[in-house]
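Final report, closing paragraph on structural work. Over the funding period we assembled a curated collection of sequence-structure pairs, and we close with a single example.
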Amino acid sequence: MENLDNLKSATLEKIAAAADVKTLDEIKVAAIGKKGFVTEQMKALALLDVEAKKAMGQKLNAVKCEIETALDVKKQELAEKELNEKLKKETIDVTLPIREENIGRIHPVSKIYEEVVAIFGEMGFEVADGPDIEDQFHNFNALNTPANHPARQMQDTFYIINPESDNFDDSYVVRTQTSAVQIRTMEKKQPPIRIIAPGRTYRADYDATHTPMFHQVEGLVVDKVTTFANLKGCLYDFVKAFFELDNIPVRYRPSYFPFTEPSAEMDIGCKKSKTELKIGAGDDWLEILGCGMVHPNVLKACGIDPDEYQGFAFGMGLDRLAMLKYGIPDLRTFFESDVRWLKHYGFMPLDESSMTGGLSNNGGLAR
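Its predicted structure, as stored:
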């Protein structure tokens, strides 16, 4: 028989020097495989007498166990080494600067939302919210909108049939305006009230300046001393802060809304050309929002005495504000999930809007 001790020593040295699992498998086959040297010597035991067979058998079993143990230890060692190398490669150094090309962008609507909240927050307004699916009382009736009003027609409004009633008047609607949040706020809270209600709204319309789902922000102030002059001052301060201009021409045109009386539309000065729209001083006007004093019937519907309290309300489209401020020509592109569009018009993360740090910091614009 070959010198078993020499073969064992050589095998253990090879195991210790193995650099990968594949090499270990080859060593295992050569030592204790079907044709390995340990296996071959075990086959040769039949040629020995009983006493020699017993002694050699014990020695072969001990060598086999030693080799198997060495293989297991080395395999575990290699597995740990492989895991550590993998973890080392995947380690992220959080102290390194951000690679701008590898991070996402803040959507313009989200940015406008932050700007509007920051401005009105400085004026003392709270943010209020409500459900997207509304009953007709909160979406229409309490807002002094009669049953025959054009806004309630099915070509303008998405209705959801109430399965528990055959009466169409009991149907739900996907809210057409965030004014419903004003109603819910006045039902729960007694004046003084000063809130804005930003959120999604829905109407059956679709073109370059209208989409079935869009974003609005509405404001409401109710107390004992509010006047139309307060409304005008509030909105003037808003447009100056929003468009970041020291002076901006504004005008108010008489209008009609069921939930306000008197009602008006606010225009801002601008300069229009075939290729450009510049907000500020100019010979042209651009309608930006609707507003007015809260109608007494609306206050009554919410349990507020109109002889004691009065207030004003206003509403504007967040998507439209984004189009005007950042020169976005088509509203439909807001909702197409085009990464190239978002990279062009979007904003860098962590570019927070505030009245002290700046609203639309040019450093945050992704372009």
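The CA atoms of residues 42 and 312 lie 100 Å apart. Residues 108-351 form a domain with the BirA Bifunctional Protein; domain 2 fold (CATH 3.30.930.10). We thank the funder for supporting this effort.
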